[in-house]
Structures are given as C-alpha cells and as structure tokens.
Amino acid sequence: MSSTPEFRSGFACFVGRPNAGKSTLTNALVGRKIVITSSKPQTTRHAVRGIVHKQDAQLILVDTPGLHKPRTLLGERLNDIVKTTWAEVDVIGICLPASDKIGPGDRFLVSEAAKVARTPKVALATKADLVSPERMAEHLTEIAKLGEAVGIEWAAVIPVSATSGFQVDLVSDELAKFLPVGMPLYPDGEITDEPEETLVAELIREAALEGVRDELPHSIAVLVEEMNLREGRPEDKPLLDVYASLYLERDSQKGIIIGHKGSRLADVGARARTQIEALLGTPVYLDLHVKIAKNWQTDAKGLRKLGF
C-alpha cells in the first residue's frame, strides 16, 4: 500500500469587507502579483483566479470584491459576484483584519457566509504584523464569539500576515485540506486564467488610484482598447503596444487625473508600464487617454461597456 497522499484540486475564495487584505494575501499565496492592491476600498471589482501549485494539491484562489452596503448599481453587482462565488467554491476563507475590531460589516459578512451551510469556513486574522500579541489574542477571541453568534463552526482560525509572510504557507496547507481528490485543473506553472488585457487594465487602474482624492477611486475604470506586439521588430527586441482609456464620470474629474500639464497622467503611465513589463516580461509602449462615461457606476449600459 502506498502512503503517498492523494492529489487534491479545487477552489477557495477569500471574502471580507473592503480593505481586509484579501488581494494582498492572494498575491502572497500565488507568489506573483496578479491582483491589484490599494488602501482605497473597493479596489477589487471582479473575481480573479490565482493558481497555487503544491506538491500534493492545486489550489485555485478566487479573490472577490469586498462585501459592502451598495450605493450604486456597480456596488450591487460587486456584491452579487461575492455571493455567486462563495456558493461555488470548496472552502471559504473569511478575512478579518486584526488591526480593526470586529464591526457591523464583519458581522453582516459572516452571517451571510453562514447561509452557505455545507461549505467549510476558515477564519483568517489578516494583518497580523500590525498588532501586538495581546491584541491578536483579543481578536481571536472576538472571532470565536462571532462564529458562535451566527452558527459557524470554524474549520480553522489562522493569524496571517501577507506582508511579512507569517503563516502564509499554513493558510494554503489548511485550505488545500478541504479540496476534493482530483487531477490538476491547470497546467503546471500557470498562475492565473485572467486574460492579459484584464490584468493590464487593472495595473493601470492601480497606478491611477495612487494619490487621488478620496471621492475619485470609485469613478475610475480602465479599458484596454488594443494590445499587440509591434510588427517589424526583431524577435530578440519585442515591443508590446498598449492603447488604453481611463474612464471617469464627470468632466470636472479630468483635471485631477491629468494633473498640471499632463504630469499626473504621465506618472500614472510610467508606474503602470513598469508593472505591466514586470508581469508580462516584455518592454511596453503605453498610450493612455482620459475619457468621460457619465455616471457609469449607476448606468447599466455604461457598466456593460466597461465589463461589469
């Protein structure tokens, strides 16, 4: 009889309120940046799949938008993505940052997750590097009480820091335990099934989010209009041409994103280009234009155009 463990493969999702550390943890587990991160809430706008290759398992992580009280049609659609995702995965990782006390948003989220009765739930005390051992002990007690209050028996409770790497491997090991026995679902070495255009658009949006006023982040959307290797280049000196549009909701927002004599837009382009080149391993020519899609967050037609 062989003592080799059976190979497992399947899906896990990270859920949490906005800015709970879901995307940073996804990137840490995958080992590469596939999801953009920002201190601004609602950074993640769709379910992104990251693939973790282990010796005895293949774990497909689905990073979801933060569950929140929606104020726009976009917000409603983001919440729908979360609930659709956690109904389809094998295990749910609920991110509850140790740097914040458990609040009404966390209680709402966990009570909603409790409705997905048969799916195991792992509580992840994220941002462990930001708190003292005493605060972490207090937080773990709060998590236990929260589970009891909504009728969840936690499959595991794990303090973790994606920034420092503390217990990141333990999280992937624990999540993998709940996957069904089965063959790998993706080829070895593949880290995401996101189209390159989507990843590129997200990296541009991340660069645009840095330093903008608090009211602007939700208004920014990015669409890659065209992306092709430039013809006539030598094989050893490729250049990827990327033409993308930054969409805002109002003309008055244009000045914020463009900056004095175009300085801010140039800075966005330079930072985005660096990230795109790192992701794709190819030199990039990036052409950015700012356009207006009036009130796109509340307009069904505008949302469809921008991929929501």
What is the count of β-strands? 9
Structural class: alpha/beta
Strand order of the largest sheet: 2-3-1-4-5-6
Measured as a percent range, the helix fraction is 25-40%
Please state the overall shape, judged from the principal axes of the Cα atoms.
globular
Low-confidence stretches: 39-46
Compute the separation of the termini in Å: 51 Å
Helix segment count? 9
- The radius of gyration over CA amounts to 20 Å
Counting copies of identical and different chains, the oligomeric state is: single chain
H/E topology pattern: EHEEHEHEHEHHEEHHEH
Q: Return the average pLDDT rounded to an integer.
A: 83
Q: What kind of sheet is the major sheet?
A: 6 strands, mixed
List keywords for this structure.
308 residues; 20% strand; globular
Could you write a compact summary of the structure shown?
With about 300 residues, the chain is α/β, with parallel strands linked by helices.
Structural account:
- With 308 residues, this protein is of the alpha/beta class.
- The chain is built from nine helices and nine strands.
- Strand 5 (121-125), helix 4 and strand 6 form a beta-alpha-beta unit.
Topology at a glance:
Elements: E1 8-15, H1 22-30, E2 48-53, E3 57-63, H2 73-86, E4 91-95, H3 104-114, E5 121-125, H4 133-150, E6 156-159, H5 168-176, H6 196-209, E7 221-229, E8 240-248, H7 254-258, H8 263-280, E9 284-292, H9 300-305
